[in-house]
Every structure is written in structure tokens, then in C-alpha cells.
Predict the 3D structure of the following.
Amino acid sequence: MSKDKYVGMDVHKATVVVCVSDKDGKTVTEATIQTKREAIRDFVKGIGGTIHLTFEEGTQAAWLYDLLKPYVVELIVCDPRYNKGRYAVSKNDKLDARRLADLLRTKSLKAVYHGEKSTRALKELAQSYEGLVSDSVRVMNRIKAIYRGRAISCSGLSVYSPRMRDQWLSELKEPGARKRAEFLYSELDHLKELRRQSKEALIEESKKHKIRRHLLTVPALGAIRVAQIIAIVAYPQRFGNKRQFWTYCGLSVLEHTSADHEFKDGVLRKKNKGKTTRGLTWCYNRQLKTILKAAALEAIRREPFKSIYQKMIDRGLRAEVARVAIARKMAAIILSLMKRGESFDPKHLIKETAQSTTAAQ
């Protein structure tokens, strides 16, 4: 008799709803427990048998993964975007837990990677830096909104300069608006200092990873971008090839065709028609896509990417499409360097590009 147990967890801030089912899909037990380390661990340890467990990616996913991994034979952190719409029926916590257990039992889940503890500190620092950058931009936008709301032109960066601050504040005749701007300027000063400290901590932590010096040889990948890439990618071997990595980066092209075959003279043949693209994949790591697009925009002004980009434009490729192609090349290079532990060789890229151009012709 099989002792396999399939456990689905619907995790919330205060509670975790658990459903345990057997190999036939029959519910063995259901429970609602507190979202606390001891309660969750004791419940899982008390299930017995061979435990297969799943829950959706979320705020507490990394913590739960580290907590429960030692007590199960299989642990899948699944993608909630992939699960969405799989069941067009009523929804509540117990039903969600049952469905997760059922999807786990039938091997119908799409896993989200977890497990590389060596980059955990770098991930935390990268998230801290990204949050401070976002907060700084938000405050800067609020400052400009005050001036624009009073028809005061404030293009450029001088409006943020401490040396010109009094001059800009004198433009605000309303006491309330001036005081509000002063508070925002003070907030911006504090954020800039925290951002500087966070940046230094992120770069210093990234130096503990050997791959850093290899990635720094790629044009347009500075210390910050390299640190963020290492934190996000973590374990490059989880990507079997560059196409899988392109999908993760949001650089994979979606294609759409219909009625692909026809009968001609009584013989089934595939139609000779072009593929219709539907843009880039919608399910991806947004931070990594932002990094690669920004790096590509900078790389097209440097060799060897500048020449490759210009050749694409000369062949009639639209500028935005050519930039995506450069971002894809950079993603493939990054994956290759991280897997092999090698530095970037421009000669290899030029040779590879020439071969692909010849084959296309």
C-alpha cells in the first residue's frame, strides 16, 4: 500500500489552510493552523508517510521552503499565474488547498525556483537597493509635481540640487506648498544617503561570488547590474538552454498560427505561411527584463554590440526589434559565462554573429 501523501497549502498572513490527500486523490485530513514556524513544522512532521508538498509563490515562500524542505521528499513552490484560471468554479481557502494538492498529485504544477542559499544575502540587499531607488524616484516625481501644478517649468535635474534648493523654493509663493516641498526635499536627502549605503553593501556582498569578475567583462554590465543578475539568476544550471533563459527574462517571442495544414491532391501537407508574432512572453522576471533592456540600450553605443546593432538596422530591422535582439544576445552571453565560469570574448561574439548572418542569407 502506497504511503504517499500530497499536501496543498494555502498560505496567508495569519493562517495556513492545509489539505492532505492520498495517491487516489481522496482527502485524508484538512486543517487550519497558525502561520508560525513551530505550528507548521509540527503539523508537517505529524502527517507521516512519504510527503509531497506544495504552496504558491508569495511573500513567505522562501521562508517556508527553508523551513519544510528537510521534512519532505518533494517540495514545489508553484507559480500562481500558471494556476490562475485552471478551475472556473467557486473559490475559498479550503478549495484552494484541495486544488493545489490535486495539481501536485497529477504533476500539473509549474515550479518556481528556490533553494540556492548562497545568494540569499545578495538577494536581500538587491531588493533593498531596488526599493530605495523606487522610493527615491517616487519622491522626485512628487517634487516636480508641486512645481508643474503651478505652471513652473522644472525640466532637468537642477530642481533636486541642494545648491539651487533655495532658489527653487522661492518660486513657491504659497506657504503650504513651500513647506510640503521642504519635507519632500528632506525625505529625498535621507533616501539618497540610504541608497548610497545600500549600493555599497550590495557591491561588497557581490564580491563574494567568483562569477562577478567574469560578468564585469561584458560591456554595459556595471557592478550594480552584475550584482542584481547574480542575485536573481542564482543557479544558472536550472536553465537548460538560452531559449529557456530568454523566456525567464521576458525576451521570448510568442507566436500564433492556425489552420497549419491542408489537403492538396489528397495529400496532407503543411501550409507554407509565415508565423504571426504576438509580442514577447507575458510571464517573466520583470526586474531581470528591466536590467537587460537598460544594458542593451547602453551596449548599442559600445563595441562589439554597436556594429552588430548597426548591421541589424541596415538590414531593415526596426530599432526596437534590434534592441530586443541585442538584449537576447546579452542574456545568452550572461548565461554562458555563468555556467562556464569564463570571461567575455568579443571575438567569439563577432564570429558567431557573422556565421548566423551567412546562414540567414
Strands lie at 4-11, 15-21, 27-34, 50-56, 74-78, 253-256, 261-264, 267-270, 276-280. The CA atoms of residues 250 and 284 lie 5 Å apart.
